[in-house]
């Protein structure tokens, strides 16, 4: 069978100890039996490892952070499109999702497809709105409050027992045992991600996650649950194993059905010793551990690309239980000329 | 006492709980007992089997057997009654 040739832009090439999903997404697409992909890396920083890794990107372009203005950002995407004729972009960086969602129609007009949740879905599941989300869809969520100033920290004792979690609106989560620690974490998080900062009840249990893909009509195209086996000091999975947990799949399918979720997602849950499941976060994109799902039999990035191209995709019905991933770090040797080229021309 | 049906036991004595993702290692006698539990054998059938095969005092076996069952229960490997 002839493979379909597609040019795909991928962001999130930072493959550090806080990895972006870009590199695993690219690996998944390169293993597709139906797609023949040319990968255009879209990089924010010159030292994102995915730029330099072998058999990863075919070409890389630097792009400006969305915070520098959506016009500059989209102008750059349009320029790259004029050179590379992109069919699809897979955004993998939380802080850029909003910009891509707002620009979806404009990008579609010029021939670039993206497959993200709607703005309404995106807002509804945000960390600040999670309590309402849980209530609306009948899913247990930990109690949480958004705070914007030091004054709010003093009032926390009226609503929370310590320890509690202090979370940034996009990334970062820290456990705090007293108000002083909350202030420390609040300062760290606001310096990076701004306000609000989310204070969340700490639920004791095991962290379990699901990577899933919804087709926007309520169908779950793929879903694979995983438990982190080795967690870095940033809370990221450095090792994990697929689970045969029907309850997690049931929660995922119910959520996708009721929200009519469109696109990739990661559900982060805590399973308590009483076998209760609390939803602690929904990441509205493919997570960095997605390659485990591919190893277990569900090529979720490939399915996402097909959906974004308007192709019909049959839902995956099974996956292998007990598949594991173990990350490792690896030193590549590059040359200053590569760095120079990217720095001076914005392309490599 | 019944072992959950989805618990996998390998020949080497490695156990995997596919729901929690937890895994455990057993010594040969532990593996033997777990295989008997998986085969839905009763406590009586298991102890008869052990006494037949090994030279062990009843009180020592019972203490160790119920400790082992307690451990299996603690790790959620047994069906709830």
What's the topology here?
The complex is a heterodimer of chains A (about 350) and B (about 80).
Chain A: E1 4-10, H1 22-30, E2 35-43, E3 59-62, H2 70-84, E4 88-90, H3 94-102, H4 104-109, H5 119-124, H6 130-137, E5 144-147, H7 150-155, E6 164-167, E7 173-176, H8 179-193, E8 197-201, E9 206-215, E10 220-231, E11 237-242, H9 246-259, E12 262-271, E13 277-283, H10 290-295, H11 300-308, E14 324-326, H12 336-345
Parallel strand pairs in A: 1-2, 1-4, 2-3
Antiparallel strand pairs in A: 5-8, 6-7, 6-8, 9-10, 9-12, 10-11, 11-14, 12-13
Chain B: E1 8-9, E2 14-16, E3 23-25, H1 28-38, H2 43-53, H3 58-74
Antiparallel strand pairs in B: 1-2, 2-3
Protein architecture, described:
- The complex is a heterodimer of chains A (348) and B (81).
- Chain A is of the alpha+beta class.
- Chain A folds into three domains: 4-115 and 331-345, Rossmann fold; 144-201, 2-Layer Sandwich (Dna Ligase, domain 1); 204-326, ATP-grasp fold, B domain (D-amino Acid Aminotransferase, Chain A, domain 1, 2-Layer Sandwich).
- Chain A is 32% helix and 25% strand.
- Chain A has twelve helices and 14 strands.
- Chain A has helices at 22-30, 70-84, 94-102, 104-109, 119-124, 130-137, 150-155, 179-193, 246-259, 290-295, 300-308, 336-345; strands at 4-10, 35-43, 59-62, 88-90, 144-147, 164-167, 173-176, 197-201, 206-215, 220-231, 237-242, 262-271, 277-283, 324-326.
- The mean pLDDT of chain A is 93.
- With 81 residues, chain B is mainly alpha-helical.
- Chain B has one domain.
- A three-stranded antiparallel beta sheet of chain B has the order 1-2-3, with helices on one face.
- The A-B interface holds A 206, 208, 226-227, 229, 241-245, 271, 321-322 and B 6, 8, 16, 18-21.
